[in-house]
Design a protein that fits this description.
Chain lengths: 476, 346
């Protein structure tokens, strides 16, 4: 009921006050989560980046401009670090420290990683002159806190979002309709695909030592699909809600598992984040180390992807995941001449199958890296990575095979019904994604469009997993 | 996916006035047409498919849209859910209907807790149940403390939420949706992938000490979880009674038995003695509470043989028959209620 109420208020308000409706709704949305420190942190980020953005813009002295920029970056890093590690810091000072919850979650970090990165990008863009500073405080606060993207991104650029926030249009049927549809599609991916995959992945990754190599492989592939359905599902929901208010947010995913190289994967996966690390970490480092040639590029890649891992959490698992991607990309830079020679030698250089082959290899590398991302500890991650092909057929029981067929036997659990419903959900996900690339639904006759809408509603009703599984990326 | 969902760019604004009527008409027509299609499909489905035959009889309360308006209604947990039989005509509710000639609806649910009993009563009364006799099973050990915390909303809270709704709008939607059985994925899937609900391990007729180690393993879990101490609140029983009274329904408690021979067999003398004392305390307190609240009860303690049990509390085919006899004796013959609290204090 929240979105329709905000939409009604938005429509009733004169256009010059619509930002106020969206800002109030965003603050109410954040406050309703009962995470008081996060509201304080958000207010701090808004105030510091707004003020420093203006100072950077108004200042002509290069040194002072740089000082303001770094002060802004430091402020965001400090607030991000403080909130993320507050509980650990307090427990270090006072062992066993605990605050009476009283219905509040004092130590949640929901959303903070996203809007602090957005604040840093704003300050950097203003410093580099690629974006104008926003003088309107309300609109600036909305830029950082717009509720559909507040919790899990996309991480928006000033140049993309401010022009839209300055001219908030009135009710637009086409946008509302397509927004609702996109929201429902995202919801389907989350509740019917991601939530159906989650129990199998959780069971294996909770205690990997109890499973065979085949189970570990199956659970790893399932996790690759789960995290895509989960995160892209949330993004579609966010984009859909924003579109109802005539705001177009950045697309975060473009079929990432069809990428033909790791570099291509990062152009398709969590696009707003990969653009951020590329523009604000990789490029400055690459320029700084340009005299070092390939070694400089490799160094810049390793640092960038180490940061990428670190952003997800200060844990060896995330760092390993980030470094693995760094290694993949560095290898592709260093081994490029050798790789081309191999392709020529095996006759794949100009062969149409080359892209498919590269796509398969890329997916295996990405899936392998997910092992460390998902594992509960680096020891578990290492165990899984080193036991993928060990004891493939052990621990498969007759009982689980009877209940769940081949998949039941491999995963040591699940019924034939579970897998049938999961298969149906995956098929709809795949067909829907493929269909969308060839057919423009809005140009089809009404009977066809409505049939599609009804099919989506019924798919949601029948395939909803009814499990309360949180979004994977909420933890970051 | 984005191109499917809309035009490639955000459309310009100001479309409403010219198209207002068309949009409103679509907004009305869209759900009405959807409802019509689903209702039609539902009619075809319920008339052509013997769908009830493929559903889980131990979850009938959650899938059957035809809830009882009167007669004899069974509520409870796994003791009354009759899982340990080989066919539906061995369940106590089937026998009870045969013997008493009354319509019996078994709404007991595996793993149900007090919040589920309250939800079940609310669902039944809101569906028009009036003047029914509701028999609820209560194990005295339900009032003992356990290490494992119970879900305060009950184990079937989500499914009851879907049936009852939370507020006026969702309650109305639940009411509209309930007769449309085709919208329930479980109902449809049970027809597509058929399951056997009786006679499949471990849910089959068995005797606790003659058939594997199921009973022993379960008792070990029970020992780990039980935390003897103060008794838990009985207040929900009175709450349930009040809820049913508002619809002129009569609550009768069936105090379910405990397999004491099993306790003596599987535990030390000291532990068994402590169990008997604690169970007796819970049992006596429950009977005292029911007497004080004026809630009638059928005391199943001391009415069962050890061979009637599957484990500590669940009964097999013989036990089902005994339950049917006791309830039948109460509802058809008005046989006096056995108050056998003494058995624990012997």
């Amino acid at each position: 009921m929240f979105v329709p109420a905000v939409l009604a208020a938005y429509q009733l308000m004169p256009s010059r006050w619509r930002w106020a409706v969206l800002l109030s709704a965003s603050i109410a949305f954040y406050a309703a989560l009962r995470m008081p420190l996060l509201v304080v942190a958000w207010t701090f980020v808004v105030l510091t980046s707004y003020w420093l953005g203006r100072r950077i813009s108004d200042e002509s002295n290069g040194f002072r401009r740089r000082t303001y920029l770094w002060a802004g970056v430091a402020a965001q890093v400090v607030i991000l670090g403080s909130i993320k590690y507050l509980r650990a810091i307090l427990r270090l000072i006072v062992p066993g420290f605990e605050i009476p919850t009283a219905g509040m979650d004092w130590f949640s970090t929901l959303g903070i990683s996203y809007y602090t990165l957005q604040a840093v990008s704003y300050l950097a863009d203003v410093y580099l002159g690629t974006a104008e500073p926003e003088r309107h405080f309300g609109r600036f606060a909305l830029y950082l806190g717009f509720f559909p993207k507040l919790l899990q991104g996309p991480i928006e650029r000033a140049g993309d979002l401010f022009p839209q926030l300055r001219s908030l249009g009135s009710f637009n049927y086409t946008n509302v309709r397509s927004g609702v549809l996109l929201f429902c599609w995202g919801l389907f991916k989350k509740v019917a695909v991601a939530n159906r995959l989650a129990p199998f992945v959780t069971a294996v990754y909770y205690d990997p030592h109890g499973y065979s190599g085949l189970s570990l492989i199956a659970a790893t592939y399932m996790y690759a699909l789960q995290i895509l359905a989960d995160f892209s599902g949330y993004t579609d929901m966010a984009l859909g809600v924003a579109r109802m208010f005539n705001i177009r947010l950045t697309e975060n995913f473009k079929s990432p598992y069809f990428a033909t190289s790791i570099a291509d994967f990062w152009r398709r996966w969590h696009i707003s984040f990969s653009r951020w690390i590329l523009d604000y970490i990789f490029k400055p480092l690459q320029i700084e180390w340009r005299n070092a040639g390939r070694v400089g590029v490799v160094g810049a890649l390793m640092v960038t992807f180490f940061f990428s891992g670190l952003w997800h959490g200060v844990a060896l698992t995330f760092m390993t995941w980030g470094l693995l991607h760094g290694v993949y990309l560095a290898s592709s830079v260093l081994l490029k001449p050798w790789r081309e020679a191999v392709y020529r030698k095996i006759g794949l250089a100009n062969h149409p199958y080359r892209r498919a082959f590269q796509g398969i290899i890329t997916f295996q590398l990405v899936a392998f890296a997910w092992i460390f991302f998902r594992a509960r500890s680096i020891t578990d991650g290492w165990y899984i990575a080193t036991h993928l092909f060990v004891g493939a057929a052990t621990r498969i029981s007759y009982a689980t095979a009877v209940r769940g067929g081949v998949m039941g036997a491999i995963l040591n659990g699940g019924s034939a019904r579970d897998f049938a419903m999961l298969g149906a959900a995956m098929a709809i996900w795949f067909l829907g994604s493929t269909f969308s690339k060839t057919v423009r639904l809005q140009e089809q006759p009404i009977w066809f469009r409505w049939s599609m809408y009804y099919a989506l509603i019924l798919a949601l009703v029948y395939l909803n997993a009814h499990d309360d599984v949180g979004f994977v990326y909420f933890q970051f | 996916m984005l191109t499917m969902m809309s035009d490639s760019s955000i459309s310009s604004s100001r479309e409403l006035p010219a198209d207002a009527k068309r949009i409103v008409a679509k907004l009305v027509l869209f759900p009405v047409l959807l409802y019509g299609i689903v209702a039609l499909a539902n009619t075809v489905f319920v008339n052509l498919v013997d769908w009830r035959a493929h559903q889980n009889p131990n979850e009938r309360l959650l899938w059957d849209p035809d809830l009882p308006k009167t007669g004899l209604v069974i509520l409870g947990d796994s003791v009354f859910a009759s899982s340990y039989v080989d066919s539906s005509n061995q369940t106590f509710s089937f026998l009870l209907q045969e013997w008493s000639g009354k319509k019996v609806f078994n709404g007991a649910l595996e793993g149900a807790d007090p919040p589920d009993f309250l939800n079940a009563a609310e669902l039944l009364t809101s569906s028009g149940m009036k003047g029914a006799t509701v028999v609820l099973d209560i194990m005295p050990n339900r009032f003992l403390e356990f290490n494992q915390l119970e879900n305060p909303s009950g184990n079937e809270a989500r499914r009851f939420d879907r049936l009852l709704g939370h507020g006026a709008v969702s309650s109305l939607l639940a009411e509209i949706r309930r007769p449309l059985v085709i919208l329930d994925p479980d109902i449809l899937m049970n027809c597509l992938i058929r399951k056997k609900f009786f006679g499949v391990d471990p849910y089959r007729n068995r005797v606790w000490d003659k058939d594997g180690d199921l009973a022993h393993r379960r008792f070990q879990v029970f020992q780990q979880q039980i935390a003897f101490g103060s008794l838990r609140s009985f207040a929900w029983v009175q709450e349930l009674n009040s809820l049913l009274k508002r619809s002129d329904d009569k609550l009768v408690i069936f105090v379910s038995p405990v397999n004491e021979t099993l306790i003596d067999t599987y535990s030390s003398k000291e532990y068994a003695a402590r169990c008997h004392v604690e169970f007796s305390r819970a049992h006596q307190s429950l009977l005292w509470y029911l007497d004080r609240q004026g809630i009638p009860y059928i005391d199943g303690s001391n009415q069962f043989e050890a061979e009637d049990f599957v484990d500590l509390v669940h009964v097999n085919v013989h036990g089902q028959r005994r339950i049917a006899e006791l309830i039948d004796g109460y509802v058809t013959e008005g046989r006096p209620i056995s108050a056998s609290a003494h058995q624990y204090t012997q």
